[in-house]
Amino acid sequence: MRVPWCHPARRQASAGTHMIDIRRPLPRLPNFPPFGPPNSRFNCGRPMRHVQHRISANILLDGILLLVINITTMQNYSILSLARNALSGHRNWQRAWRSPPLQERYDVIVIGAGGHGLATAYYLAREFGISNVAVLDRGWLGGGNIARNTVTIRSNYMRDESIPFYVKSVAMFEGLTRELNFNMMHSKRTMVDVVQTYPKMRELRRRQLTMDLHGATYEQISTAELRRRIPALTGGGQNARLPIIGGMVHTDAAVNRHDAVAWGYARAADALGVEIHQQTAVKSLIRDAHGAIEGVETNRGTIRAKKVVVAVSGHTTTVTETAGLRLPLRTMNLTAFVSEPVKPLVDVIVNCPDSGFYFSQSDKGEMVIGGAPDMGQSFRRDIKQHVFEDTVSAMLSLFPAFKKLKLMRQWGGHLDIAHDSSPVMSKTDVDGLFVTAGWWGGYKAIPAGGLTLAHLVAKGAPHPLMAPFTLDRFRHLDFERIWHDGQIIDPFGRSH
Question: Which residues have a Cβ under 8 Å from the Cβ of 84 and sit 6 or more positions away?
Fold first, then answer.
């Protein structure tokens, strides 16, 4: 049965008697202000009646800790600063970041005020003392791809080079709330992979062994334990087309607030002297007589800088080609959708790699669902009907109780992907021009991606964690042959 599109109105009707009742609403969890980290950590398999109590306890303990930490720093968010501003009717809060006049010259220009762009600017100022930095965005801060994802944070990636990078990034996310003094609503929930084929199980077992070498957590569990931990998983029985044969558990996985990540980095970077300029569209890159980068041309005039960072996921090639630089990237669409709020049902991140979907439940009770990408070249931001139907049918085969859910909204984001599905963090053949692109798991890489790219920009040499992801790995490719008249040509001469 196809899941129908819906409006935000919530029906109180219960599910059928043969299904789990997911429609009965429970009191919503509060929306917390940005002054302290709730750090609600859901243990896989913990009874749902303990979830809200656990969150409340964490909020109280973390709030007390932040009160002690920030009692002498009134400019920071804390329980004490919240109380002080409440007495004045909240009229004395300072702006989270400035709106300064645009200068003619900077040391570094970062194109893109998303997660990676803001993180790079922040670490340039904090780690390397480079604060004369301008972050430019054609729209608003945090309004691009960082606002178009499912906020899953994990390190269980396949490639050997990727795992230590993401292990570092996941660890940095855990301390980001305190470092930036901004509530990320970080929730360490655990990811459970539902495995339905033996080839996939062998692949994940190899991944487990690789992750063990890098100190990441990934463990195999039985089908019985899998169903115990996810009671809503009632499909995939022995008579199913793809029966469940087991599961894998990644305990370090988490979720948080994507807007809080962008705002937290923006606020912290601004405090260190970085300038953030919204509604400043970059029309083209400017090169000097020697071919080196000289600055950018914007809708607000020309801005000079000897170093320019391109962090515009999905539109990287659009920008770099204005400087005559062609990169081995293609842009595709990745979609997600969100259901109406329901009672607490799933306290882990569920991933079904054989079926091509994953989901988690937000603190408001919404099911945040992601599916497979649309592999065709596309800059669209909506969802194709066949992609939606494939994702929904796969989900209902394992979670039939979800067929009563109403969908509230859907969206798409842009991914610029390299042929090896690994990121590109590198200086380019244009002196002074740097790119961060090709992110399949870009959101979860924000802290480590920003730190390592800032290292490259400041030092001129790649950080050890990013060394495998430079453009040097594509030096053997013949771009003129690969890209001919707008078509991709493989080594055998076949067009695609």
Answer: 74
- Name the percent of the chain lying above pLDDT 70: 78
What is the pTM (predicted TM-score) of this model? 0.81
Q: Which two tokens stand for residue 144?
A: 């691009």
Per residue, the 3-state secondary structure of 375-413, as one string, reads: CCCCCCCCCCHHHHHHHHHHHHHHCHHHHHCCEEEEEEE
Q: Which two tokens stand for residue 372?
A: 């497979």
Residue 312, CA distances (Å) to 103, 110, 158, 257, 321 in order = 22, 10, 25, 20, 13
The two three-digit tokens of residue 416, written as one number: 């610029």
pLDDT band at 112 (very low <50, low <70, confident <90, very high): very high
Fold for 191-250+331-417, please state it.
Answer: D-Amino Acid Oxidase; Chain A, domain 2 (3.30.9)
CB-count burial class (<10 Å; 0-12, 13-18, 19+) for 384: middle
Phi, psi of 56 (to 5 degrees): -60, -40
CB 384 within 8 A of CB 338: no
Q: How far apart are CA 293 and CA 128, in angstroms?
A: 21
- Spatial distance between the Cα atoms of 320 and 322, rounded to a whole number of angstroms: 5
Q: What is the dihedral of CA 44, 49, 50, 53, to 10 degrees?
A: 140
Q: What pLDDT score does 476 carry?
A: 74
pLDDT grade for 90, boundaries at 50, 70 and 90: confident
Residue 63 buriedness (CB in 10 A; 0-12 / 13-18 / 19+): middle
User: pLDDT (tens digit, 9 = 90+) per residue, 393-423?
Assistant: 999 999 999 998 998 988 877 788 887 888 9
DSSP structure class, residue 303: E
Distance of CA 82 to the CA centre of its chain: 29
d(Cα 142, Cα 150) in Å, to the nearest integer?
A: 14
User: What would the two tokens of residue 197 be?
Assistant: 């084929």
Domain boundaries, the chain: 108-152+162-167+258-327+420-488, 191-250+331-417
